[in-house]
Design brief:
Among the domains are: 118 residues, no CATH class; 59 residues, no CATH class. It is 13% helix and 42% strand. The chain is built from five helices and 38 strands. The model has no long low-confidence stretch (mean pLDDT 88).
Length: 424
């Protein structure tokens, strides 16, 4: 169904579907954009059949006066009237001054005009409503690309329309209020793609999605990046293939398959899944740097000579037997759960309980006595049972109640002349 003109009765019929749905409840409200209405009528008048009908209306485009843009003027002439498709709903006339309400044939539809002698239409005012970005809600958004579609109050309902609005307005940011899927027909190269938060907005990237150089903020991102570089901030990366980019404060969920020839860096990231995340290094071709990571990480499929540098805040590491080449350095606080790598591995900088025991508790305090042995000897002399007091040989029993830890032999003046120690 589309807008039609009956040249006999001079009635312009406007179907409900040709108007933007603004509100569904408690009362349904539709919006007729006067400027769009003008162009539709002119198209009909230009058609082969329409050329014989009298002109439907006068139209004065917005006029700039003293830096202020006065709204358009639309006037039905030559006896034309408008009939809106009958039903229990309201129609808002938006975008300019008109006599449409005065020329409407009455039925159940309520027609509301916003005419004003001082009505101003300013591009700056409209752009301010967008806030520099286009809002998209693919579940409950509105169709079309005309203002106010795409504003926070009335998000658009498709990525296609979001791109059109952004290009017309000169914006490079799209804010997703719901889940969305980008494919090869959506040119999002260089865009900033953001969500309300990564738990509410998932952006799925189909193979060939055009997101080269895009910035992803506050989204759950999944799918195929097709070797396109990007920057990810405060995102959840879930089952990503063909990954090539840099991540800041992101949660890694499940598997990331890294490709390309550019360096890949993860700053202040963590693993959001209980079993940790897996980074498939993609064979050969890129250096990978991981800084201040928390959680579990498993590395697989590294066959090239490039570097893999991992700095852990806390967590655990695993290297599969498919990690066969390159310089690998892991430092920080982490437990090395499994290492089947045959690459050039350097794990000396890892700190864990085994390393702590080796470096601290097993380190000699003095001579051949380590920290644990010294602690046993001190505990015995301070807390253990004593036998032989008042004799030349005094024995201090360990707090285990069985081991003679310290045996002291004294001279007549009570000076120690021989000490036997057992800290094992």
């Amino acid at each position: 169904m589309a807008i039609t003109i009956d040249r006999t009765t001079r009635v312009i019929a406007v179907p409900k579907a040709d108007m933007t749905l603004v509100q569904s409840s408690p009362i349904e409200i539709r919006e007729l954009d006067i400027s769009a209405f003008h162009f539709i009528l002119r198209d009909i008048e230009d058609d082969e059949e329409g050329i014989y009908i009298p002109t439907t209306h006068n139209y004065v485009a917005p006029i700039s006066v003293g830096g202020v843009t006065l709204a358009l003027i639309f006037e039905l002439i030559n006896g034309y009237t408008v009939t809106f498709e009958d039903g229990s709903y309201a129609v808002n006339l938006a975008g300019g001054n008109s006599n449409i309400a005065d020329k409407t044939n009455f039925n159940l539809v309520s027609v509301r005009s916003t005419n004003s002698a001082g009505l101003v239409q300013s591009r700056e005012i409209e752009d301010a409503a967008y806030g520099g970005k286009v809002y998209a809600d693919l579940v409950g958004g509105s169709g079309g690309t005309l203002y106010p579609v795409g504003t926070p109050q009335q998000p658009c309902n498709s990525i296609e329309n979001a791109i059109i609005i952004a290009e017309l307005r000169g914006f490079k940011t799209i804010h997703f209020e719901s889940d969305a899927t980008a494919n090869s027909s959506h040119d999002l190269d260089g865009y900033t793609l953001e969500g309300h938060n990564p738990h509410n907005s998932t952006l799925t990237l189909d193979t060939g999605a055009m997101v080269d150089g895009a910035n992803f903020i506050g989204l759950r991102v999944t799918g195929d990046l097709s070797a396109a570089g990007g920057t990810f901030t405060n995102c959840i990366l879930d089952e990503i293939t063909m990954f090539n980019g840099n991540c800041f404060k992101c949660h890694l969920d499940n598997n990331l398959y890294v490709v390309g020839s550019n360096d890949v860096v993860f700053h202040d990231c963590d693993a959001s899944c209980p079993n940790g995340a897996t980074i498939d290094c993609g064979g050969s071709g890129r250096n990978i740097g991981i800084r201040n990571f928390n959680g579990g990480l498993t590395f697989t499929n590294k066959t090239g000579p490039e570097e893999l540098v991992v700095l852990m805040n806390s967590g655990c590491l695993q290297f599969a037997n498919t990690v066969t080449n390159g310089d690998i350095e892991a430092t920080g606080v982490a437990r090395l759960v499994s290492n089947e790598s045959t690459a050039n591995n350097n794990f000396e900088g890892l700190v864990n309980h085994e390393k702590f025991n080796e470096e601290f508790f097993n380190k000699n305090v003095e001579s051949n006595t380590n920290f644990i042995q010294a602690l046993r000897l001190v505990s015995a002399t301070l807390l253990g049972k004593v036998t032989g007091a008042g004799t030349p040989t005094i024995t201090f029993e360990g707090i285990d109640g069985t081991t003679d830890r310290v045996i002291v032999v004294t001279d007549d003046d009570g000076n120690r002349i021989d000490v036997t120690l057992d800290g094992d």
